[in-house]
Amino acid sequence: MKNIFTILSLTIIIKVTAQSNVLPAPAQTQAIALMHATIHIGNGQVIEDGTIVFAKGKITGVGKSADVSDAKIIDCTGKQIYPGFILSDSQIGLNEIGAIRSEHDEYELGELNPGVHSLVAYNTDSKIINTVRSNGVLLANIVPDGGIISGTSSVMQLDGWNWEDAAYQKDNGIHFRMPSLMPGRRSADAADILKKAYDQIDEVRTFFREAKAYLAEPAHTVTNIKFEAVNGLFNKTQIFFVHCEMVNEMMIAIEFAKEFGFKTVIVGGTEANKITGYLKQNNIGVILNQMHTLPIMQDDDVDTYAKLPYQLQQAGVLYCINDFDEMNRGRNLMFNAGVAVGFGLTREQAVQAITLNAAKILGIDNKTGSLEAGKDANIIVSDGDVLDAKSSNIGYAFIQGRQINLDNKQKQLYERYKTKYGISK
């Protein structure tokens, strides 16, 4: 018993002291000019030997030349500048260590939980945050899990003392996890499984019909919290995120959108390439969550996921690339985009897929996603091509003009043991 308490005490000490020197950045007080860099705007445009100036958290000028008077000048000769990358579907800050149940804050009991808000459970002290942002990811859409309607996500900036500081776009959407309608099940109870799935879908449809009727009432004798929670879907201030993969599942999601008038985004969309015309016709965006995984169907190409971005790009469907892998936890986002370059995308299309496209899908493109005057100064500076694992090295990062500390536990351990063993490089 004594040994157990000793181990628990050490664990607590390690968790409390680890990375205690990585503090949230103070507000920007002086204008900053990043000069002589290759600037990737995020909308496909590239400026060689360009300058970007930002003050009070906002970009004030971008181009071959800009007013740099009274600005702190940072020479970025030979470097590449990009908009900060955006994780469009993540559980950073909600799920710290997968093997420890007490460190999971993404689940809620019950099937219909539209009133669950992920942002209030977001842990700004997560050690994963520092690792991810040192790879250029500055914003993340934090998504709850569990049930059929999991709750409400919020876009968080990966820097802040608490969730109130970190909140970038509160309650931007509600998440519906479509029950699987995977064809070809061979188990004896396949029919029962599918019937249960369709019954759950009908339950959700009935819920929204009742919510619509409730919200149309001029006054209520009794307040229904769950119905109140989905009002943003009906007045289009929130996005309806539907997590599904197969064509039949996506078709149901689109029918939901048409019946209720929801602004809808597909999360997953493995078979989105098969209904590109229908997706485009109904203005449905797609978040592509996985790149390094096997296809769902046995007769699909092994590189199905890698080809999807190019196929959607060619069809004119709005999409973004994500990294929801439980091992990567978002830090390989830019390398997922790099893989898509090997399967047809141009480099600038790949950059746009993790910046401006992601911002459009999340409804925050009016203030971030590209390096344009008037938008937030969410900027990263890399020594080389950020899509290439060999040359990508983030030297500077700014969130709303604040220069972010790019240290993390892995870097600290590297320096510790490099010193211990006398390694010079």
UniProtKB/TrEMBL annotation:
Residues 328-401 form the Amidohydrolase-related domain. It holds the Pfam family Amidohydro_1. It comes from the Bacteria. Keywords: Signal. One of its GO terms (molecular function) is hydrolase activity, acting on carbon-nitrogen (but not peptide) bonds. The keyword Cytoplasm does not apply. The keyword Membrane does not apply. Residues 1-18 form the signal peptide. This is Imidazolonepropionase. It comes from Parafilimonas terrae. The lineage of its organism: Bacteria, Pseudomonadati, Bacteroidota, Chitinophagia, Chitinophagales.
